Amino acid sequence: MSHKLQVGEMKVAYLTDKEIWRHFNYIFSSKSRNSTTYKFVLIKSLIENLYNVNEKLELHYDSLFNSFSRIYWNLVIHHDLNQINMAGKKAEVQRILLNMQSKHQIPNTFVFDKLSNELQIIIVNKVKKKCKVNVMGAIYGDTAGTIYDFDIEHEVLRFNPAFFSFMQRYQRVLKYMSNYQLALFLEKFNEQGDTSGLLLKVENVSKRSSLDPFY
């Protein structure tokens, strides 16, 4: 079970664009198991952090899950959207964020960037602790162990150079695909299921509040 791996080693060093497209098409297809929105949000977070890697193409989990937490907070708290495909249930990260909102009495109008730095760090650490065990291995498994190396203990991943180059070149297309599939998922499991409206929300949840009049 790839999603429970503690360490994932890269299986292949070089892939063609055609092979990489095949992996992404699988992730965005019904063949991939997506009981929550985690994979779509992780892909959005990876794209957002392509320029935060070091010379070894390593990305630390603090940066990755800062993006992940911001996107999830804005979906769950700001837009009140359920993130799991089971009625009456909540995704684990969704539950973490709702508990934090309740504990600190935070209004729904607050996007993630309006929270205090201290509270953001607490939230990111809680989300990182939950997701690094399950989410990192899921994408790794869907790409047959080719997208990155990862190490849960050291909280770092290392991009496959071929995937990294591909994601840089096709980041706009990949971002649109992940946004669209995320919107389709949300439409199925939320009463306010207007795909066009949800797509607008999904496209905006990644943006910084200071730069986006949407907020």
Could you provide a short overview of the structure?
By secondary structure, the protein is of the alpha+beta class. The chain has helices spanning 17-27, 38-48, 61-78, 92-104, 117-142, 161-169, 171-188, 195-204; strands at 7-8, 58-60, 148-151, 156-159.
Task: Explain what the structure shows.
This protein has 215 residues and is α+β, with helices and mostly antiparallel strands. Helix content is 54%, strand content 6%. The chain is built from 8 helices and 4 strands. It has helices at 17-27, 38-48, 61-78, 92-104, 117-142, 161-169, 171-188, 195-204; strands spanning 7-8, 58-60, 148-151, 156-159. Strands 1-3-4-2 form a 4-stranded antiparallel beta sheet. It is globular. The N and C termini lie far apart (40 Å). Mean pLDDT is 88; it is low at 210-215.
Tertiary shape: globular
- Strand proportion, as a percent range, falls in 5-15%
Mean pLDDT, nearest integer?
88
Please tally the helical runs, counting DSSP H or I stretches of 4 or more residues. Answer: 8
- Residues in helices, as a percent range: 40-55%
Distance between the termini: 40 Å
- Give the SSE order as H and E letters: EHHEHHHEEHHH
Question: Strand arrangement, largest sheet?
Answer: 1-3-4-2
Unreliable spans: 210-215
Radius of gyration: 16 Å
Please count the beta strands (DSSP E, at least 2 residues each): 4
Largest sheet: 4 strands, antiparallel
Protein structure class: alpha+beta
